[in-house]
């Protein structure tokens, strides 16, 4: 199977997911270094999460992280992935994001969600059953503020009185909402005309719903006067690659089983506990839930996602400490070297040009040899003529 769709974009979704025990200072530094690494390799974007408990996901403020990462990078776009809206006064968060848009010169993206960790909500006295409604209410208000409106809004958890942002955004930055297995995320994205982050795209329960989810986005968008485009749709999934499948399996012995066990405690569709990493990798690969293997296997997975979804714009790695730090960086390097060109249209013209040279046989070498011989003969003739002229003086 070959890829014939529009050029894909690639990035990473950093929870971030770290294997414990780990020095938190080092964890944050490595997350920043990873974003630098992705920028240098030509990845297009990175999304950074917000979490306040669990010990694994160590970024409390994606805005602070993005401000630091923007100073270290040149090209990569940086998104809140995602800001948990029920935890924030909407005006204050909107104001900070506009400042961040200016500080990054338009490289900032705003991803919004309800918040995932039960412990986070409980520590702030928030009823988890209210979080999705609060997220939608806050986002609607924030979109009005970004548009320059003066907003008065009274809710049971925040109040705005003639609130207006003192600065307009630097750019028309992208806004995205999350979706998993249920239709609530796609429905909200269509209703508000935002982008969609599908965070369970490779889950067996999620992948079969991908095409239907985009249908929901389009129908809701049409009903509410918005235009949506598949190029803004992002799919996220686990992926780790090495030179060989056997090497990839050895590499993920470092942390994959540990991290997926953690996710099983916070995500209803996550895999259960496995004592044998090889058995776990087999389940991940055979189910299509992710890829632990080679660049060729990564290409096959992306082609499968393209077919199942009907087309999307960006694939995001679920950035995790499956392997140690050097092997993790190498995985992204291999992907940038061998997978990204396959889906961006850059590989075909280079291979075509190469094949034209090969198909010409030795014509190029023979032509060059004749030119070199002619040049040598010309030089000798000129030399002899000069010697004759000199001897006659």
From TrEMBL:
Gene3D superfamilies: Luciferase-like domain. Residues 10-307 form the Luciferase-like domain. Coiled coil: none annotated. InterPro entries: Bact_Lucif_Oxidored, Luciferase-like_dom, Luciferase-like_sf. Pfam families: Bac_luciferase. Residues 379-393 have a biased composition (Basic and acidic residues). Keywords: Flavoprotein, Monooxygenase, Oxidoreductase. It comes from the Bacteria. GO terms for cellular component: cytosol. Residues 358-393 are annotated as: Disordered. GO terms for molecular function: monooxygenase activity; oxidoreductase activity, acting on paired donors, with incorporation or reduction of molecular oxygen. Belongs to the bacterial luciferase oxidoreductase family. This is LLM class flavin-dependent oxidoreductase.
């Amino acid at each position: 199977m070959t890829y014939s769709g529009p050029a894909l974009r690639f990035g990473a979704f950093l929870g971030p997911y770290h294997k414990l025990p780990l020095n938190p200072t080092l964890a944050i530094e490595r997350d920043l270094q990873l974003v630098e690494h992705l920028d240098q390799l030509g990845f297009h974007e990175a999304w950074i999460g917000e979490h306040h408990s669990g010990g694994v996901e160590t970024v409390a403020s994606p805005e602070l992280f993005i401000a630091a990462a923007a100073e270290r990078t040149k090209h990569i776009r940086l998104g809140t992935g995602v800001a948990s809206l029920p935890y924030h006064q909407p005006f204050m968060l909107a104001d900070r994001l506009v400042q961040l848009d200016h500080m990054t010169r338009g490289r900032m993206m705003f991803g919004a969600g309800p918040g995932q960790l039960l412990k986070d909500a409980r520590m702030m006295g928030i009823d988890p059953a209210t979080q999705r409604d609060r997220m939608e209410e806050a986002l609607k208000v924030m979109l009005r503020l970004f548009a320059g409106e003066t907003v008065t809004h009274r809710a049971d958890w925040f109040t705005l009185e003639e609130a207006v942002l003192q600065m307009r955004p630097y750019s028309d930055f992208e806004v995205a909402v999350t979706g998993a297995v249920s239709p609530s995320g796609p429905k909200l994205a269509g209703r508000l005309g935002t982008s969609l982050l599908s965070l369970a795209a490779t889950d067996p329960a999620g992948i079969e719903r991908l095409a239907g989810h985009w249908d929901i986005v389009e129908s809701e968008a049409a009903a509410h006067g918005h235009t949506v485009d598949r190029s803004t749709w992002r799919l996220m999934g686990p992926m780790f690659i090495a030179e060989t499948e056997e090497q990839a399996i050895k590499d993920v012995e470092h942390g994959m089983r540990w991290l997926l066990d953690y996710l099983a405690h916070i995500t209803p569709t996550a895999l259960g506990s496995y004592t044998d990493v090889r058995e776990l990798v087999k389940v991940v690969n055979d189910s299509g839930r992710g890829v632990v293997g080679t660049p060729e296997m990564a290409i096959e997975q992306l082609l499968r996602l393209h077919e199942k979804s009907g087309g999307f714009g960006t694939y995001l790695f679920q950035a995790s400490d499956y392997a140690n730090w050097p092997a993790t960086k190498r995985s992204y390097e291999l992907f940038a070297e061998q997978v990204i060109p396959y889906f961006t249209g850059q590989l075909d013209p280079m291979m075509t040009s190469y094949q034209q040279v090969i198909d010409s046989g030795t014509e190029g070498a023979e032509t060059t040899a004749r030119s070199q011989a002619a040049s040598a003969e010309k030089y000798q003739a000129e030399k002899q003529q000069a010697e004759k002229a000199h001897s006659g003086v």
